[in-house]
Each structure stands twice: as C-alpha cells, then as structure tokens.
Write a structure and sequence with these properties.
single chain; alpha/beta; eight-stranded mixed sheet; four-stranded mixed sheet; 13 helices; globular; binds 2-acetamido-2-deoxy-beta-D-glucopyranose; binds zinc ion
C-alpha cells in the first residue's frame, strides 16, 4: 500500500500530466485527468493490485488500432476474469466514445480501482457482484478524440475532439439496423440479430466502430451502458425514431424493461432523478420530472447509434448515460462526480441479474447454442417481439421486469419447442431466476438422430461461432471491396 501511494504521488507530480490543462489536486489520483498513457498505467496498476480478479485486453480483429494507432483497452473484473463461465452474465461499460465527453472515462477508472480495493478488503456485496458477473470496462472508445479535446487551451469546446481522428462521430457510425427492424415489424419477420441483414452500403465505418462491432458480436454481453456528457439523464432505446421525425417517443419491444434499467441508474444517482437545473443546451428542462430518464428518440432521434445497434445485433441491452452538463469539467470536480455516480454505477451492474437465465440442452444434456427464447407477457397477453438467443454453452439471459411470463425455447427444425410459465420477482442483489429447458428431438427426426448418435451436436457450439465469423468476414470483405 505504501509503495502504491508513493507511485500515485509520483504520478500526480509528474510534470507531463500538467499539460492536460487543469492542475491536479496534490496526492489525489481521483482529482485529475488521465491521458492515454496514464490511463493504460492506471489499468495496469489495478491489475497488479488485483491480479486474481482482473484481466487486461485490447480489442483485436481487423483493424486493431484507432486511426492514430492507439488501442481500445479493456479491463475485465470477475472471479474468473479470463474466460466466460457458463451461466454468468457478461456486462460492459464504455466511456468517452465522444472524445470531449470525459467524465465517464475518469469514472470508469475510479470504478475499476474501487471494485479491486473493496473486493480485497472483504466488502461482501462487491465480492458477490464480482463473483457473479463478468464485468468489462472500456474507459475510452475514442482515445484519439480525447487527446484532441484535452489539448484545447482554455474553455473546452462543445465539439472539438467529439469525433474520431477522421472526423467521424462514432455514435452516428454503426450500421442502421433500426430501419430493418421497423420494416420487419410490418411483415412480422426477424426481430433480433439483424447484422446479417444490414445492407452493406456502409464504407464509412471507422476503425473504432469496426472493433466495437466485432466485440459486441464475439462476447455474449447481456447488459451495457455507454457513458456520455452534456446533459444529465439516462437515455433508453429506441434512439432512432420510427417515422423519421426529429422527436418522437419510439417504443421498443422491451420498453418496460429498458425504462426499469434507466430508472435503476437515475434513482441511485445523487441528483439525476431529483430537481436540478437543466443544462443550457437542452430546451427540455423536465427530465427530472420523469425520473431522470428519457426515451432516446423522444429527446432527439439518433440514427446509427451504438445503443440501438447493441439491441438489434446481439442479445445486449444498452442504455446511454448523460453524466452532467459539462463535457470537460475542471479536474477538481471529478471526486464529486464519482460520489454522485458510484452507487448508480454499482446498482446498474446488478441489473445484469434481473429476469431469468438458464441453459438449453437436449435430452443427452448437450448444450444447444443459438436456441431462440421467446417471451409472452401474461399480465397483458402480449408477446414481446424481441427474441434472445442462447450462447455457445447453451446458456441464455433474458432481462425482464417483475411479472408473469410464458417463456418458450425453440431450436427448430432439429428440436421441438418447450414452454414454461414463470413468475419473475427480481429480489435485490441476487441472481436471475433459473429457467432451464430440455428440448426433445423433433418427432420426425428422432429415429434418424438417435441412429446417427448426433455426431454433429458437440461441434454446434463452434459452428455458431464459425457462422458469426464467416458473417463478419463477408461483411468486411464487402466493405473493403466497396472502398
Ligand atoms: C494494449 O495496448 C497497449 C498500448 O499499445 C499496450 O501497452 C498493452 O500492453 C496492450 N495490452 C495488452 C493486454 O495486450
Ligand atoms: C467470491 O469468490 C471468492 C473466490 O472464489 C471467495 O473466496 C469469496 O468468499 C466469494 N465471496 C462471496 C461474497 O461470495
Ligand atoms: C407486462 O404487462 C404489464 C401490463 O400491461 C406491464 O405493466 C409490464 O410492464 C409488462 N412487462 C413487460 C416486460 O413488458
Ligand atoms: Zn456524447
């Protein structure tokens, strides 16, 4: 501990850090900004302090660097951080997608350090959260933009550093899956995992966007939040309006659950859901009157954002957090931001455990990947038109608010569907209710299947992954040939 403190002090006094523009508060690592190198050092130090529950990686793939050659660095915090554990939900926080919105980046550094310290010192609630959840934290999705923003002299600009180094706004750069989803609503066709349907006319994907797309597809994330600044509100899907109007409440099939998720953050935040002054850039000063939350498109419609992309391309539910009026506040204010957000950041991670989860297997106990989990709300008799799929080990997670549901698992044509009625209660800080399924072989295939011993069953996990890889490979080949 003493050595660490010494390091912290050294870093705080390092003259390199004074170019960030705001003086660091002596001796405190919380009250200063971290440039790219400082951020990587910080993550490395957390890892060294808590090697058993942390794992560092950079996003890989093609490409594997930002425009200016930086890495998108991630720390995983979990009891078995290097691998996915069957049944354990994967969670992510992404900060600083807009390079000039910097509070989230510092909060995420604070958060990783806090989780590490509290775990070590025996905080049982934190240990439980970390043991039950695989938490991925990416403090900066746009490290190039951050450097540009922080090198501004004087008042931080509303726009400089927002985009990546090519001038691309990353939150307007994802494939537009909403248009596909909205047209499918009319024909009652596919409502999830729509990436394969995306018309590949997009030769403008930034490297940062490409890396994050591959990340979202590769890891079976359940829940996520994207941290921004400029206002104070928790924003939930859809972000893109159905009609094309600039402002229109645009309901998603999971509206009730998304509202609950956004509220879970806002309510634990020090001021988000309480009366507070509105930010000068918004004409809408009534966010707090609605509990500190807003439907994205009702506030203003955003096309090609990351939030809706998560929901429509994968099993991951994402909301967007606006952490305050100031995008680049003085460093001395950072400890207050941490105090205001800490409990909300923790509570939101617990939300990866609402609803139900389980495993889909056949009667030989072999996992079924890519099974479809459909939910009908028995309180209002309506189907929730957004299916979740099982991951490689047959495990699935279905976030839901409390209620009564009929849950149906299908893996056609090989298996028959099975339904169960469940009551979800979502007790605080406990795992999702377990609802597992054993699917019978489809009648007409039964004798065939048993004769052939299902030789193809166990590689099915891999087949799922291969499929996604092929899909992505094709996707990027198309992109390249268009360039
Ligand atoms: C991630 O990238 C940074 C910067 O290039 C590098 O220093 C670090 O070692 C990389 N981390 C891992 C886990 O590969
Ligand atoms: C978390 O897991 C660790 C390692 O398995 C164990 O020692 C610890 O008791 C667990 N803590 C809680 C609260 O479950
Ligand atoms: C189910 O229906 C009830 C009654 O309309 C509603 O209050 C609840 O939010 C719905 N649940 C979901 C998950 O949509
Ligand atoms: Zn933003």
């Amino acid at each position: 501990m003493t050595r660490l403190w010494f390091l912290v002090l050294l870093l705080a006094w390092d003259p390199r850090n004074s170019c960030v523009g705001y003086p660091a508060q002596e001796g405190s690592d919380l009250a200063r900004y971290h440039n790219y190198e400082d951020m990587l050092d910080f993550m490395q130090r957390v890892h060294q302090k808590c090697p058993d529950i942390t794992y560092l990686y950079n996003l890989t793939g093609h490409p594997d660097k930002t425009v200016e050659g930086r890495n998108l660095a991630v720390i995983v915090i979990s009891d078995d951080p290097q691998r996915h554990e069957v049944g354990e939900p994967e969670f992510k926080y992404v900060g600083n997608m807009h390079g000039n919105e910097v509070v989230g980046r510092e909060l995420l550094l604070d958060l990783m350090d806090y989780l590490c310290d509290e775990y070590r010192s025996g905080n049982l609630n934190i240990q439980k959260l970390v043991n039950l959840t695989r938490i991925h934290i990416m403090p900066s999705m746009n490290p190039d933009g951050w450097e540009l923003a922080s090198n501004q002299v004087g008042k931080k600009d509303w726009l400089i550093g927002r985009a990546n180094a090519q001038g691309i706004d990353l939150n307007r750069n994802f494939p537009d899956l909403n248009r596909i989803a909205y047209s499918h609503e009319e024909t009652d066709s596919e409502n999830n995992h729509l990436l394969k349907e995306a018309v590949v006319n997009n030769n403008e994907l930034a490297p940062e966007t490409k890396m994050v797309i591959q990340w979202i597809i590769k890891i079976p994330f359940v829940l996520s939040a994207n941290l921004h600044g400029g206002d104070l509100v928790a924003n939930y899907p859809y972000d893109e309006s159905r009609s094309g109007k600039a402002q229109e409440y645009t309901i998603s099939p999971d509206d009730a659950t998304f509202k609950f998720l956004a509220e879970s953050y806002a309510e634990k935040h020090a001021t988000m859901a309480k009366p507070h002054e509105s930010c000068e850039m918004t004409d809408d000063d009534s966010f707090y009157k609605r509990g500190g939350i807003t439907n994205g498109a009702e506030w203003y419609s955003v096309q090609k954002g990351m939030q809706d992309f998560n929901y429509l391309s994968s099993n991951c539910f994402e909301i967007t957090l606006e952490l305050g009026c100031s995008k680049f506040p003085p460093a001395a204010d950072l400890p207050q931001y941490w105090k205001d957000n800490r409990d909300a950041l923790l509570q939101y991670m617990w939300m990866s455990h609402i609803g139900i989860k389980g495993r889909i297997t056949n009667k030989n106990g072999e996992p079924i990947a890519n099974a479809i989990i459909h939910v009908k709300n028995l309180t209002n008799g309506q189907d929730i038109e957004h299916e979740i799929t099982s991951a490689h080990d047959g495990d699935y997670w279905r976030l839901l608010v409390a209620g009564r549901y009929e849950v149906t698992a299908c893996a056609l044509p090989r298996y028959d569907c099975v339904s169960q009625v469940v009551t979800v209660e979502n007790p605080e800080h406990s795992e999702a209710k377990e609802v597992s399924f054993t699917l019978p072989f489809a009648k007409k295939e039964e004798s065939l299947d048993e004769d052939e011993g299902y030789e193809s069953m166990s590689p099915e996990d891999r087949q799922d992954l291969d499929e996604v890889r092929q899909l992505l490979a094709k996707y990027y080949r198309n992109l390249e040939s268009e360039n």
